[in-house]
Amino acid sequence: MSNQPESRVGAVDLAFKGGMSQTDVVIAGVKGMLSSGRLRPGDRLPVEKDLAAELQVSRGSLREGVRALSTMGILETRQGAGTFVTALEPSAILSAMEFWVGLQDGERASQVHQVRRALETEAAAAAAASITERQLDEAARILERAHTAIHATPIDHEAAMQCDIAFHRLIAESSGNRVLSALIETVSTKTIRGRMWRSVHDNAGLLTTHGEHLGLLEALKRHDPDRARTRMANHLYAVEDYLTAIPDRDLQASTSNEQPQTNNRSAS
Questions:
Q1: What is the pLDDT of residues 86-97, one digit of tens each?
Q2: pTM of the complete model beyond 0.85
Q3: Of 75, 125, 130, 168, whose CB is crowded by the most CB atoms within 10 A?
Q4: How far apart are CA 60 and CA 80, in angstroms?
């Protein structure tokens, strides 16, 4: 009778391994353990020599695979305690995608904006159905702070931008879907630089953006998913149109030390 563990990954099915590198075998093996329920969030991985033997890889390859999975947010190594499965929070696991999103420009950047619009319009609709009074109050306070920043002398562009980000984040979180919220956070990072550029160079547009945010808040207060979806879509179409018109060379320049210019147009 075999003394191997019943749920053993063993050879990661040699037929499946094919031309996979040993590092990929480790990644596939750990994924299989998670999918089968053998490993769960917070669990400690088997000791190195046993796991390497089970996956039929060298201990060096096992360490490479563990490092790769740690970078992905799947595993974490605790000094003196071993290697553990993380909580598998979507926001942590999507960090690598966030890095990729930040590198995109041109047509791919435009596609990222389109994905953001698709996600946020549905998040707005879901939020309209599930948002709480506490969340509505917080959204109203955010927009009050935005109003103060926009009407300050001089305009507080940084505060206005932070309110913009906070308002969109609150809507995403109010959708009640943590995966959707994490995806939105990931793809939104690409628009931050362009939105800040717009905020600094497009003062008149700050008022337009603020008005669109107020319209969104009204739709949320009415708990009207269709209205919220439509207003978010219209808002983000306008944002996309503006951001795609900004010359790449201007976006490459840092906005942190620029002085706000008047009679221009804004943030997200």
A1: 988 877 777 767
A2: no
A3: 168
A4: 19
Could you write out the three-class secondary structure of the chain?
CCCCCCCCCCCCCHHHHCCCCHHHHHHHHHHHHHHHCCCCCCCECCCHHHHHHHHCCCHHHHHHHHHHHHHCCCEEEECCCEEEECCCCHHHHCHHHHHHHHHCCHHHHHHHHHHHHHHHHHHHHHHHHHCCHHHHHHHHHHHHHHHHHHCCCCCCHHHHHHHHHHHHHHHHHHCCCHHHHHHHHHHHHHHHHHHHHHHHHCHHHHHHHHHHHHHHHHHHHCCCHHHHHHHHHHHHHHHHHHHHHCCHHHHHCCCCCCCCCCCCCCCC
Phi, psi angles (nearest 5°) of residue 84 = -125, 155
Residue with tokens 């959707």: 180
